Amino acid sequence: MVASIPLLSFKHALDSSPEAFGELRSSEEFLGQPAMLNQRLEEDGYLFIPGFFEPDLVLAARAAVTDRLAAEGALDPAYPPIEGRCIPDRPLGFRGDLAKDNPAIDRVVYGPELLGFYANLFGEEVRHFDHTWFRAISRGQGTPPHCDLVYMSRGTHQLLSCWIPYGHVPLEIGGLMVLEHSHLQSERLKNYLEVDVDLYCENRPREIEKVKEKGGWSHPGWLTNNPVSLRQKLGGRWLTAEYHPGDFLTFKMTLVHASLDNQTDFVRLSSDTRYQRASHPADPRWVGSNPAGHGPRAKQGMIC
Ligand SMILES: O=C(O)CCC(=O)C(=O)O
Ligand SMILES: [Fe+2]
Each residue of 9-36: b (16+ CB within 10 Å) or e? Predict the structure, then answer.
């Protein structure tokens, strides 16, 4: 895993020394051995399974997305859409719409391979959230450190996120990275992990205005904007990989993760989706044919 340029995350230069930066551990050899996979998940807080999907399945989903981006004029027309060349100064970003009514993406994220993986891991029937998060990340963009719990804690906390890249993602394009052993630091992160980004204080008029009337956020959900100082405080290494089509990374709600910034003109395409035991309660914001998400129907007032 070698970067050709210094790596950035949320515009901070990462310390790439071996104490601070490393490679995700593959658990591919434990596929079909749920006890071993669960043990790894407890130890690492994540399971990285390179080469899980047939690459053609993932590349078909990439093509469905790059065709849509090309049709809206978001890609450089001098190159084939599948290359995903961005137009400089025309930023892309979080694009949930690209996964809507997109059977090629559904085939990957809710197909028999991945649902079978989770059924095997959980040892029972699984359900997935009905909302599919999708990102088209262009130059200069990345995701700050956070835990997913703050966005989806109203059902079971034994929920797993799954991050899937649609294409080759070398370090300079920038994929997901996780902070080693941060899932074992929940006591230290207690105040943060109790956040629910859709709660607001009913007894604070300014907050009512911001959240209820203007559709803003009472809390953005980030743990910090600075992955470098966070690592110095919490310890561990930032772990990532050079991703290929077919790979996935699944992780616990309390694992701190972020992404490397994209330093190229190639778009980084990825989905993140969520899976749980079917018998456990599910966060109502993310289920149904038209989930509330973080929209007005999800906001809940409380007295602070
Ligand atoms: O893809 C990214 O930049 C962030 C993804 C993420 O936060 C997630 O998969 O939960
Ligand atoms: Fe996340």
Answer: bbebebbeeeebbbebeebeebeeebee
Q: Which residues surround ligand 2, an ion (CB under 5 A)?
A: 148
- How close are the terminal C-alpha atoms of the chain, in Å? 47
Relative to the CA of 143, which ligand 1 atom is closest?
3
Q: Is 161 in the pocket of ligand 1 (CB under 6 A)?
A: yes
Domain boundaries along the sequence of the chain: 12-182+236-292
How many C-beta atoms lie closer than 10 Å to residue 88's C-beta? Answer: 10
Q: Ligand 1, residue 272: give the atom nearest the CA.
A: 9
Q: Whats the size of the chain, residue-wise?
A: 304
Q: Please, are residues 167 and 55 in contact by the beta-carbon 8 Å criterion?
A: no
Fold topology of 12-182+236-292: Jelly Rolls (2.60.120)
Taking only the tens place, the pLDDT of each residue in 178-211 is 999 999 999 999 999 999 999 999 999 988 888 8
- The model's confidence at residue 216, banded by pLDDT at 50, 70 and 90, is confident
pTM of the model: 0.97
